[in-house]
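ok so heres the complex, two chains, lmk if somethin looks off
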Amino acid sequence: MVRKHLCFGRGVLGVLCWVSLTAAPLASQTESVLSYLPDESLLEGWEALGDPQTAEGDDLFLLINGGAEIYNEFGFVRAVMHSYDKGEKSVNLEVYEMEDVASAYGAYSFKTSSGGESVDIGSEAKFEEYYLNFWKGNVVVTLIGFDTDTETRDAILALAKMVEAKITAGGHRPEIVDVLPELSSLGARVHPTYVEGILGLINRYRFRTEDVFGFSKAVVGEYDDYMLFAMPYDNTSAAAEHFAAATQKMSSSGLFADVVTTDRDFAGKDRDGRFVTLRLVRDFIVAYVGKDIDQASNALEQLTERVAQYPIRQER
Amino acid sequence: MDRREFLKRGATLGISAPLTAPALGQSLSRDLDTVTQRQGVDIAAVAGSDYYANAVRAVELLGGMGSFVPRGATVGLLVNSPWQNPGTYTNPDVSLAVLRMCLDAGAGDIHTVEGASADYWHRSTLAGRFASEIAALKPSGDKNVIVEIPNGVFLKEATVSHAFMECDVLIDIPVAKDHDGTRYTGTLKNVMGACIHDPTCRFMHFGSGAAEFYGDPSFLSQCIADLCLVRQPDLCVVDATEFVTTNGPAGPGDIQRPQKVVVGTDMVAVDAYCAEVRGLRCAEVDMIRMARDHGIGSMDIATMRVEEETLGA
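and the predicted structre for the whole thing:
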């Protein structure tokens, strides 16, 4: 996995020392995220609570502790958080500036699900019960309401539009996402998640808790009752090398029964009775996890066809 | 020499003189004369829309708070309170119910082991009614002790809050939510709240050489199981009312609403039960299995007496 962030292993004290030693330049960089904050005076009756909180690099851990790690895995740069209230109602705004467009899309896709309502704000804004996520350029934005009342929802939407207007960056989601079979071809609903590390992957499926694939990016398609995975590598020999290593570790892990392996395929059954099939396709490793062996064959075949059409070395 | 006296002596030695976990790990309160007879229930799970009432009833099913809190005992409440988003922190109605029950049982000083902000308590609509109780809570303070863990697989010593070790009765009050790193947070994971970040939590995340915070989930899970050898709670009161099932620990994420409060004394059993409420097989959650392997408790719920009730049904 390509590490895109500073290691937190120096600890909070180390971070604090580093922050204090570099306070002046850091402050000016961090303050740049304040420009994303909306002018709350435009939102009648709502007021900002206290001062906004900002974080740069590893000090995101000081704000959200272990919740920071997934942002770091994608390549976190800086963030600003601010709360707004109106009487008993409250909304939290979180704006994360990421390293690049792919990082922002990845964090967005990780945080969202196949449910929710699409909203025309930024790129792919989605309102899920009590919170809204969208991304635009290298920025991912989350607004959280503490109830589901119309007034709170309206405030979330209004604040989201104000923030979106302040984001000047643009860009498209990573093309690798489009390698997933179309909804229509499989007759199923799909939620794509773009991941750049083991934390993103194991929160979709635990092939193992460590990274057996040696991947730097992957796309996961969550369909109604199964998942598809596609991991691109720099070239075919790298893909073959990682496929051999991964299937060897999975075969010997004891986590899978009825294992069958060849130099291009792996099949086994996990402890929940799900079929797990891996296939080496050109410079990709692709995988299926689901309950139906016929479905596995069909879905993996379609994914294989899509991968075969994917340009070699694009976006690598 | 009882545990409190032992601690006082230990404290005079300063944190450079490590304590040994087994010497302190078994709660004194379990042996105190004032403990009343329990009713043979291993786990009580009470569902209903009034979370305060659920907590009270669940503790009653285990024999009432008087079974756990002797009159005059100091109590430590380990509440998962630092988070902000819905379903990521222990519902304060549940914590307030525990607080009120402790006071009713005649508890002496009641500490929040990890600290809990005024903002946390005021998220409850009951905060005004219990203002004096909240005001009476004592913060944990900055004092820490180093404890040796001879039977720890990876974690051989831990720096933990003095309040965690000092209290006569420890009550673990987590929320049963999703967690990116360990899949699930419950009574076992919540004990990390008793540790300061550096060095203990830092070691738990990076001690194996992992480059990322959750770079080695198996190591972290084993360290959590090791940490729980230091001291097991006298009572676990788990908020399984509303919790995130995605994007934990910070959220926001999908919320599941079983509206349950789950109570027990065996933290492994309670976590095993709650993990299944959450939709996980408990054997899939490494830290539960590893804590079982340490002898901290049992995952075999089928052999236990579990009382389930729904209030207002």
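quick notes: The first helix of chain A runs from residue 11 to 21. thats all i got rn
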